[in-house]
Design a protein that fits this description.
By secondary structure, the protein is an all-alpha fold. The chain is 74% helix and 0% strand. It comes from Vulcanisaeta moutnovskia (strain 768-28).
Length: 473
């Protein structure tokens, strides 16, 4: 039962298609390609499509965990509910806080910073002028609240429109690239020779590095699990849409990565040049390739689609964050006012407001950290603030997924357990190599320790918890 003062989310607000697009928006394809293509190629080189293919197979093993759990436990605070029901209530509480507070709210902040940085890059690519990225920073923070408060239906409709545009632009780029470079089409990018490494350990290092960056492309695939209670037939729609959204994104990422290689060439020098351009303060080379095929108008559309992609990711993440807080509050583990929904739109409006406020605080902290590190110019300051927020954010994300996958082991047979174990191994590798700073590790350990302490402080409530699985799903 919901606690006094709380109310239900809107039933049957969307269906399979809405859940599918919500997951697509969470993965933000144009955002991922513009920001991450060079990172994968910098490690895997011409074998970047192979690294992306291996990543997709590994991520699908993780998605299988979500598939199993989403069918059984539809809940607004999904990652808390999954672990609570399969492991225990205390671990579920810890995972809920890790996902909702440390990953998701920090994620909202990091995506807002990315909007400012990539928006500035796009404007520079189109006009040749560099603006102050801080001008763009408030746009997603303010505008995303409008569809979010209006409910899942307006949010999903916004995501469907915006995500369709960015996917269409990427597919046009792929098609034109294949047509223009037919003679270059080869299986070389799907072989280990594409890494240019000569030893087994070198090949493994190159592909592992590519995997670490490639797996971040899929971050956000799970956001539809948090709107389970607002989806028609959630036990079927949510897990199936999450699976197909991930498969589609994986294929799209492979195609776009391959198309970029077709254009720049398979040589090590050509790829190094591409990576150097991406890491510099000049035009992003992905924008240059888009201009080559689609002209100035196409470049403008792509620049807009990247901003659209980041905005859609921000909206999907904000909605997921608020529903995690709402679901845990409804079960008595957070302040009850977070479980209140808007009297007209049935959105968790107070949780949305709190998520936004805390996300703004994380943005301020990220900029302060970048400033203390010696970055003063607005563009460099924004890039490094984004990098810091994203780095710590990804650690919480992977840790939360590992706990979810561990819970799913209890609901599967041996064949399923093997698949999940493979996914957990890939997550563990990603987690290990993602710790690039002792400060990130210190923050991670301290925050988890604090969460465990809090779990014992509210021990009576955790011991008495009766989780509210969606009664009408």
């Amino acid at each position: 039962m919901a606690r006094q003062g709380s109310s239900e989310l809107m039933r049957n607000a969307t269906g399979f298609l809405g859940s599918l697009y919500n997951s697509l928006a969470g993965q933000a394809p144009a955002y991922s390609i513009a920001g991450g293509a060079a990172l994968i190629m910098g490690s895997a080189y011409a074998a970047a499509p192979l690294a992306m293919l291996l990543t997709l197979l590994g991520v699908l093993a993780v998605v299988y965990s979500i598939f199993v759990l989403a069918r059984k436990y539809p809940h607004a605070a999904s990652f808390y509910a999954y672990v609570t029901n399969t492991i225990n209530a205390r671990t579920g509480f810890v995972n809920g806080i890790v996902y909702a507070v440390f990953y998701s709210i920090v994620g909202v902040g990091s995506v807002a910073i990315a909007f400012a940085y990539l928006g500035t890059e796009g404007i520079y690519a189109v006009t040749g002028h560099v603006i102050n990225p801080l001008i763009l920073l408030p746009i997603p923070i303010v505008l995303a609240l409008i569809p979010a408060v209006l409910g899942v239906r307006p949010s999903v409709r916004t995501e469907m429109t915006l995500t369709s545009i960015e996917i269409a632009v990427l597919l046009i780029f792929v098609i034109l690239s294949f047509i223009a470079n037919t003679s270059r089409i080869s299986l070389f990018p799907f072989t280990v020779q594409g890494t240019f490494a000569v030893t087994p350990s070198g090949i493994l290092t190159a592909l592992s590095g590519g995997l670490i960056f490639a797996i971040t492309y899929f971050m956000g695939f799970e956001v539809s699990t948090q709107i389970s209670e607002e989806v028609r037939d959630p036990r079927k729609s949510v897990p199936t849409s999450t699976l197909w959204a991930t498969v589609f994104m994986g294929i799209l990422y492979i195609l776009v990565t391959y198309a970029i290689l077709l254009n720049i060439g398979y040589t090590q020098n050509a790829i190094n040049n591409f990576v150097s351009l991406a890491e510099g303060m000049g035009p992003n080379p992905v924008y240059t390739l888009i201009r080559h095929y689609l002209g100035t108008a196409g470049l403008l559309l792509f620049a807009i689609s990247v901003m659209i992609s980041v905005f859609g990711c921000y909206l999907a993440t904000l909605n997921a964050t608020a529903r995690m807080l709402y679901g845990m509050a409804r079960d008595g583990l957070l302040p009850t006012w977070l479980a209140e929904t808007h009297p007209r739109y049935k959105s968790p409006h107070k949780a949305l407001y709190l998520s936004t406020v805390v996300a703004v605080l994380t943005i301020v902290l990220a900029y302060m950290a970048a400033y203390i590190s010696g970055y003063i110019k607005p563009l460099e300051l924004t890039y490094n603030a984004m990098e810091d927020a994203y780095a710590i954010d990804s650690l919480y994300y992977v840790l939360s997924l590992i706990l979810v996958a561990a819970g799913a082991l209890k609901l599967t047979r041996w064949s399923g357990r093997i698949a999940i174990a493979i996914g957990m191994a890939i997550l563990a590798i990603t987690f290990y190599y993602s710790i690039v700073s002792i400060w990130y590790l210190t923050i991670l350990v301290a925050s988890i320790a604090l969460t465990i302490v809090v779990s014992y402080a509210i021990n009576p409530r955790i011991r008495k918890i009766k989780i509210t699985i969606c009664p009408y799903c």
